[in-house]
Amino acid sequence: MRYCILSLEALYGTALVLAVLIMQRGPRLSLLRGGLRSLLYATGRSMKQNAYYVMLWGVAFTWLHIQNSFTGRHIEADCQNMAAVKACNILITGANRGLGLETVKQLTEDSCPKRHIFATCRDPDGPRSEALRELAKKHPSVITIIRLDANDPCSIKESAKEVGSLLGNNGLNLLVNNAGIVANGTIQTSSAEDMKNTFNTNVIGPLLIIKEYLPYLQTAAKASGTPGMSSNKAAVINISTLGGSMSTMPSLYKQFPVLPYCVSKAGFNMLTVLSAEELKADEILCMALHPGWVKTEMGGEKAPLESKESVEGMLRVIGSLTEKQHGGFLDYTGETIPW
C-alpha cells in the first residue's frame, strides 16, 4: 500500500513537470526538458526510493512557473522582449524546406510591422517548393518568392537585381545564407565532383550572394542612423555547422563521415571571418550560426532537435546580436563554438 501511494506521488510529480513544460517556452525550455528526462529515468529505475523526490521536483518546478508569472518575468515574455528580430527587409536562401522554410514561418508569425521577407530557392515553381508557395499565399504582403540558385552565379546576380527593384531606398537589413548541400564521403571515397559541388554551393555561392547584396546592406546600414551593429540594422548571418569546426569535428568524424561537407563548411567559416573583417567599416554585422543537429531532410531522422526549436533558438540569438558577436561562431542557444 505504501509503495502504491509513492507511485501515485511519482506520477503526480511527473505530471506537474509536464504541465510546466507545456506552459514554459523560451531559453529555459531545454533545461526543463533535461530535468524531465532525468525525473522520468529516476521514476522508472527506482520508483520506490525516488518517488518522494520526484514529487518535490514537480512542486519546485511548478512554483518556479508561478513565481515567474506573478513577478511579470514569464519566460515567453522575456524571450520576445529581449531578443526579437525587428529587421524589416529580410532575405533567406534555401527557404523552400527545412530550416529555411521554418525561419520564414516564424518570422511571419510575429507582430513586426512593415516586414518584407524575400524567400529564395532554386526552383520556386517546382514540387519541392509547394509548402513555401502555400505560405506565401497566406501572407502575400509579407513574403515574396525569388528564384536564387546558390550554385549559379547568373541566378544570384538576377535575384539581386529583382530584390533591389523591390527594396527601393530602404536597403536590406538581414541576409541569411541558409542554402547548402551535404555529400557523404571520406578521403578514400569522396569524388572530385562531390568536392566541387559542395564547395560551389556552400562557399562560392554565399560569397557571390554577399557580394551582390552588399550594396543593399550598405544602404540599410546608412539609413538606420544609429551607431553600432545589430541584425535589425544590417547583418549577414551564415548558417554554418559544427562540422566546419576544425577543433571539434575530428572526434565526430567516425560517426559522421561527410568529408566534402565538412571541408566546404570550414571554408564557409573562413569566409565568415574575412567577410566580418571587410564589412566592419560599414557597420554590417557578420557571424556564423550553428543550428544544432536538426531533424530535416539534410539532418536525417536520427537528429534529436526539431526544426521549430532550432529556429526559435536561432532567432533569439540573431535578435540579441551586437558588435560583440561580430565575426563570431555561435550555436542556436547562444553558446560560442570553437573554430
TrEMBL record:
The keyword Isomerase does not apply. The lineage of its organism: Eukaryota, Metazoa, Chordata, Craniata, Vertebrata. The gene is LOC109054264. Gene3D superfamilies: NAD(P)-binding Rossmann-like Domain (3.40.50.720). Keywords: Membrane, Transmembrane, Transmembrane helix. This is C-factor-like. PANTHER family: C-FACTOR (PTHR43544:SF33), SHORT-CHAIN DEHYDROGENASE/REDUCTASE (PTHR43544). Belongs to the short-chain dehydrogenases/reductases (SDR) family. Pfam families: adh_short. The chain crosses the membrane at residues 6-23. GO terms for cellular component: cytoplasm. GO terms for molecular function: oxidoreductase activity.
